[in-house]
Fold this sequence. Notes:
Layout: H1 4-30, E1 40-46, E2 49-52, E3 55-58, E4 61-68, H2 72-101, H3 110-126, H4 131-190, H5 198-215, E5 218-222, E6 225-229, E7 235-238, E8 241-242, E9 245-249, H6 252-257, E10 259-260, E11 263-264, E12 276-280, E13 283-284, H7 291-326, E14 337-339, E15 366-373, E16 379-387, H8 393-400, E17 406-410, E18 416-420, E19 425-428, H9 435-439, E20 445-446, E21 454-455, H10 457-461, H11 478-485, H12 498-538, H13 542-576
Antiparallel strand pairs: 1-4, 2-3, 5-6, 6-7, 7-8, 9-12, 10-11, 12-13, 14-18, 15-16, 15-19, 17-18, 20-21
Helix pairs in contact: 1-13, 2-4, 2-5, 2-7, 2-12, 3-4, 3-11, 4-5, 4-7, 5-7, 7-11, 7-12
Amino acid sequence: MPTLFGILNVGKTALLSSQKAMSVTGENLANINTPGYVRRRPVLQEDFSYAEGHLYFGTGVQVKEIERVVDKVLDKRVTLEKGENGFWSALEDVASSVETVFNEPQGLGLSDSLIAFWDAWQALSSNPEGKTERDAVVEKAQQLVGNFQEIRRSLENVVNDGVENIKNWVVEVNTLVKEIADLNKRIKYAEVGDKKINDLKDKLYYKLKKLSELTGAYYTEGDDGVQVYLDNGVSLVEGDKYREIEFEEGDFLRKEVGILNNIVYRKEALFEKRYMKLTVSGEDITKVIKGKMGGTINGLINMADHYLAEVDRLFSELAYRVNMKYVAGIGLTPVSSYTSEAKADDPSKAIRDAEGLFFRDRLTAGAFEIRVWDKDGNLVESRMIEVNPDDSLLKIADKINKMSNVKADVTSDGRLSIYTTAGYVISFSEDTSGFLVSMGINTFFVGDNINNLDVSASIKANHMLVAAGSTPNIGDNRVALEIANLAFGKFMDGDRTFGEFYDAMVGEIGAKTARVKDIQDDTEKFLNFLQDKWDEISGVNIDEEMTNLLKFQRAYEAAARYITTVDEMMNRVINGMGLVGR
Length: 582
């Protein structure tokens, strides 16, 4: 038969269990805004029972454990979706930044400056002797160069900002993997038997979500804790062991653009340097990492770098085509000597291999004509100079020196100087070899890529050098007209004008960015859906906790009343029994 002390113990366990349950509720309410906190639930269990005859009597209640209320499958799904959403949100950031670069103010953008540049040449062709028209050509050309350079700077800033973000994220990721490994160790040694270290587990799974958001990492669970892997199976954490991500800087940007050491290379060229490289224990993970880091890298390569390469291709092609026409031109100011803008690193080397030349990859077997004019505009001598890409600069100078009134020298720094004897003016005909453009002799633009292209310094200094025709005849407009007509040439991808190519590129950027935004919106909605489901299960709900608080309070009060009643019974037995007659 249960004793009074036995039934008093029942009340005591009920009182203590209700007190502990209220404490758990209080902890939930206190941490309602704590990131990563998973609500706790007291698991009540009937205390042991004993037999008396054919009857079994209980001894009260106990709090078996305080469990984290979590759906492990859903929790892992949220973690993975964090990585997916991180990828697309970072990619959207880069894509939107690139799109902003090409959102041109009315009348001030590259498209407008392209039109103005061609119109200026058209106006010069209509008035080939005009000074105002020459001023306009130089002004519009400089505006065009400025717009190209502004796009270059803006896109490079997008890349630089992205790389800086990745560098910072690498530090954060390496901190997270260390902390996760440490938590694995602490949890393993703390959870002996039925012990549950809920606060450490909250921290562990919260950090796993952060790590996935940055890298797209996923995890599995084992006896030693969680094991964390990247998308290609490279492990970051195994129990209490971890591996860090290493960041390496190089020339990645120039590689993607196709420029190395200010020299333009084509797509088939091989590059050794990279602007950025991520490795884990020597294994390259740059293009397999996901999350925010992967989205940013993807955006830098496929948006910022790609369209910087496209803008470079547009500018380079435009400058080359203009220069190929312009080399035959004569300005209003007579010129008796030219010194090349380009410098060959070795004048004895074949020009196809000489470093320092412009558009070197476009050199071909052909010829250019040198013409000599007297002061009255009469042609007194001309000669076709044959050029083969295997020729050296010195050999070409020797060919020029066979003329009577023209001499050629190679300077000590590798420049080609061509000059006439006293009293004559020099000009050239169209160049089928590309040699004059490659050397930068009588070209409107100097350079061969977006990093070094500019209007010739001599033309900027003296606008009267701007050529409209190919003869000293003041009414000759052939060169200006041919350059103006380049606006209609299908030079880009074989079927687009310069303007059409640029407009199509801007449209493509807008379409890509819109598509990325749509996917990002979808992933964010799905993540929010999963997060809402997670919150329903694992989040702290004030109304539910207040209901629990009231329930445990009533249970506590009932236990207290129960104990009071038992106490009165004990007092009656102790103080009221055995006093006969009273």
